[in-house]
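Fold in tokens:
===
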Amino acid sequence: MTALEFNHKLLGLQKNLKYFAYTLTSNYEDAQDLVQETYLKALTNREKFADNTNLKAWAFTIMKNTFINNYRQNVRNNTILDKTDDLYFLNLSKESNVGLPDSSYSLKEIRKTIDKISPEQRKPFEMYNNGYKYKEIADQLNLSIGTVKSRIFFTRKKLMDALKEQQ
């Protein structure tokens, strides 16, 4: 396929790409940016497109992957570095009001509530909040992943219920 044919077929997908971009972003301007980024990547990587394959699917894949990469980048940019001793603020968003004077709960109240939970329930929860993956927690505590997940879930539920009662 010549460059001219490729460009013509790619431009023919504009309406479909705009619609797909809008379904991904739910924002007109973000969708326009995503379409432009997709066109740029498709044109830059034209030599990677195999003739006699589905150009529409190839372009949609580029768009989907670009959207996912942009989303991941935004999540990374909205994550703060935690310099506290107990890594409490790890992965809280910048807009979080935890620990601020006008927040619903003080860190001391939350810590006291967590300390009241039994150690076998509390340990996986604390490890998870410190950034450990389920597999790492399971290996370190010699538990199954399902047990780790359920202990974290129920500990989180106990914590939320206890804090609601304190309010």
Remarks:
- The chain has two domains: 3-77, 81-167.
- Helices lie at 3-11, 14-25, 28-44, 55-77, 107-116, 119-129, 134-141, 145-166.
- The mean pLDDT is 83.
